[in-house]
Amino acid sequence: MLGPIFGGRIAEDAWPVHLARMCDFWSSVLLKSGRYEGRPLPPHLALGSDAGEAQFARWLALFRPTALEVLPPAAAQQAIAHAERMAHSFRISIAIHNGDDATRIRPI
Ligand code: HEM
Question: Nearest-CA neighbor of 106 among 82, 86, 81, 92?
């Protein structure tokens, strides 16, 4: 479900840059390193109908066990909580952007 979305937007040779950016992002979130200075929302608004409820549910369903697998337990919980908040805020912003009713959106 998610592979084609990423594959359609990130060229084969652009993956190292994308992954380095994601490392900067999570380093800033978990370690307060300040390494990430980007704006996370715009690329997700640009996903249009590709970023629907099912896609966010799937993203979180993959993220939660992965975080528990690769991080110490407390850090994993912190990463999961942050991902859940961010997914929620993306979904609200996407709904507003699309002119949909954002008041009915509940955390996944
Ligand atoms: C359905 C779920 C999601 C999809 C399909 C998705 C897809 C993408 C894609 C395709 C990009 C690359 C954009 C580009 O470089 O052209 C991206 C960037 C990014 N995503 Fe997501 N994403 C999802 C959820 C999330 C969540 C929940 C988070 C945060 C916890 C997140 C954080 C980021 C960040 C930080 C970037 C880099 C933005 C930048 O500085 O350019 N994404 N995402």
Answer: 92
pLDDT tens readout for residues 88-105? 999 999 999 999 999 999
Domains of the chain in start order, with CATH, are: 3-97 (1.10.490.10)
Q: Ligand 1 test: best mutation among 25, 27, 44, most atoms within 8 Å of CB?
A: 44
pLDDT band (50, 70, 90) for residue 75: very high
Q: Report how far apart, in Å, the C-alpha atoms of 39 and of each of 23, 36, 45, 70 are.
A: 14, 9, 11, 25
**Nearest CA owner, ligand 1 atom 31:** 40
